[in-house]
Please model this.
Amino acid sequence: MEEVINYINSNFNNYLTELKEYLRIKSVSALESYKDEVAKCAEFAAQKLKDAGMKRVEIFKTDGNPIVYGEWLEAQGKPTVLIYGHYDVQPVDPIELWKSDPFEAEIRDGKIYARGANDNKGQHFVHIKSVEAFYKVTGKLPVNVKFILEGEEEVGSVSITKFIKEHKDLLKCDAVLISDTSMYAEDVPTISYGLRGLCYLEVQVTGPSKDLHSGSFGGAVANPINELAKIIAKLHDKNGKITIPGFYKNVMKLTAQEKENLKKLRFSDKELAKQVGVKELSGEKGYSTLERLWSRPTLDCNGIVGGFIEDGAKTIIPSKASAKISMRLVPNQNPKEIQREFIKYVKSLAPKSITVDFKIHHYGYPVVIDLNTKAIKAASNALSKAFGKKTVYTREGGSIPIVVDFVKELKSPVVLMGLGLDTDDIHSPNEHFHIKNFERGILSSAYFFGEFGG
Ligand code: BES
Ligand code: MN
Model:
């Protein structure tokens, strides 16, 4: 083990250089025009798996983006770890707010800045490098290893959901290891055991068949933007509760133990408000901020368009308006059921003077993970060794839709070993990853394999 750790430490600069190469590939899954880059990125990842000693590496074509698979299964009698990650990244807009090129990684202040530096190239690269270190130093690995890297996580993980159902034998394992979440705070090693789900739709409101003069027609014809705004306003009550009938009926309450754990974690509303640039936080009444973030569902408008949006003024009753609305869900809410109820409710709120259509984007199931597994214990010890501190347990506000399939389809214990920070600006301009977390991540990964392999 010691030799492997020394090897990692002395090769760390090369790992950074390689990560920069990985980050140069513009694997934006949301935009059709980046398809070639996405394909190139899958090739790059496959090559890295080969370099890390994987005996079988395959790029599986799908209806969407390719899935990269690699395995090394020569540790007879040892457990098998499946490592999941996603090589696709979010779009970079608004590009003018980036201090350096999002696809030309730059190191400033001990952080590496680029789209995907944290979410998720930097985070899963950690495991490729730790596996490689074992392979280079000892010629073998302490556990059997399978990698699965997808290119659609940021757009709903459609292809891999099907892939898992069709390749249960290929993916059979004793634990799934994922680094795609956040640490509770700087220098605090963290395992997350919950993720929120998601239900994402677009509400399209149509009024008159074309834009109309607001003088000639205003007062006689419903304005789709006004009506959409009224509908959105009715989706929450004055206490911040979502008004969709039955919305909360399956919401799982925190256990007494979880509440205890929450109390132990230090948290400051003031600091969070300062971090995000607001005067005070806001949300559902009767719950603490951590409770709201980790265990309560939400409904948010992500974007809204309609009417005249150029510079200057134009006097119209617009023909159309639309809003992208997402709901973060918690166990045991069912995204499909929530979707149905949302549509029914919004239709009921709409006056006859407009028509409402819905476009469904994607949905994902929420999950809570059993902490009582060998894999979690091994990961907790490994993180503590690498960070020199006790590991804490958190739930996440974000979503990784595929995790539920690992639990339900593969029936595998999952470990969410997050290495990012909520201040790393994922999905935002100037996304970054702390180099010390990249480094401690590789070490944690190595310790985990050592520990889990016994
Ligand atoms: N890495 C994130 C999930 C995440 C975000 C974990 C924040 C912890 C904190 C992941 O890549 C992501 O962005 N997921 C999407 C899923 C969606 C597009 C289906 C999300 O949560 O919005
Ligand atoms: Mn993401």
Notes: The CA atoms of residues 125 and 182 lie 16 Å apart. The mean pLDDT is 97.
